[in-house]
Amino acid sequence: MKKKALAILMVMISAVLLLAACGKDEKASGSSDKKGSGKTVTLKMAENQPDDYPTTIGDKAFAKLVEEKTDGRYKVEVYSGGQLGEETNTIEQVQLGSIDLARVNASPLSQFSKTIGVTSMPFLFTDEEEKWEKLNGEVGRELLDTLEESNMVGLAFYDSGERSFYDTKRPLKKPSDMKGLKIRVQNSEMSISVVEALGASATPMEYGEVYSSLQTGVIDGAENNFPSYYTSNHYEVAKHFTSNGYTGTPEVVIGSKKLWDSLSDEDKKAFQEAALESVDTQREAWAKLTEESKKGSRKSWKQNC
């Protein structure tokens, strides 16, 4: 009887050990399969410009490169036209991790990193070559890294051209012509300080509100690059464009810290490489649109003379 009980006990122990081993193998296999199973993690990227705008074109190039470099494990869906909110709102959502990625201007980011606000300083670089050598190099990397303190990760800078003033009232031939004008600016201390130093009243507001505000007289003018001035139809209501290119605040591709912490070191490298490699595509699209915008604006001005 004792031998029979012992035999049954040994069979039960063997069965338990066998099940444990199978469970361990199955778990390891499942972990391995997850990486090579073809499952894709889909990420959301916010963009407030239209689908065919240079920054959106850059976003899409970035998305394509991410998918290629991660062997399809990550897919980035670009939501253009402000579908996920205006810039300030999307920055906050990236901080919270409710949006994975976004393309925003460096100016509103200065609220979260005063260091990156240096890119808005007037006449900061001597020429385009110096500008992109710095932004794509170690200096740019150091600036982007300052965003980590605010739960964001900076991946790359995009081109946003040179910003100039335009208004509904009068040609701006000298600094004193700015006196008394209400000028829309991005929500940053640097932008506000520059406009107020010129004697105008700085009025921070979201980009999507500018056209109607110019039209109704809530503001007298704004400052932006030629493509934004043209594609947003601001030239229809603000006929006076002063081409001084006083600042060239770049755009920034950012990611949430939540997303970043979930990536392996290999995937982090893939995302960074994808962002940097997409810069050339974005800048080429920017140069093309700038020329088209200048021609379109000049044609409109002549027709209205």
Notes on the protein architecture:
The chain has 305 residues and is of the alpha/beta class. The protein folds into 2 domains: 41-160 and 249-291, D-Maltodextrin-Binding Protein, domain 2 (3-Layer(aba) Sandwich), CATH 3.40.190; 163-247, Periplasmic binding protein-like II (D-Maltodextrin-Binding Protein, domain 2, 3-Layer(aba) Sandwich). It has 11 helices and 10 strands. The strands form 2 sheets. A 5-stranded mixed β-sheet has the order 2-1-3-10-4, sandwiched between helices. A 5-stranded mixed β-sheet has the order 7-6-8-5-9. Helix 2 (54-69) packs antiparallel against helix 11 (265-303). Keywords: Signal. This is TRAP transporter substrate-binding protein DctP. It holds the Pfam family DctP.
Summarize, please.
The protein has helices at 2-36, 54-69, 87-96, 106-109, 128-135, 138-145, 189-197, 210-216, 226-231, 257-262, 265-303, and strands spanning 41-46, 74-79, 101-105, 152-158, 163-167, 182-185, 201-204, 221-224, 240-247, 251-256. The protein has 305 residues and is of the alpha/beta class. Strand 1, helix 2 and strand 2 form a beta-alpha-beta unit.
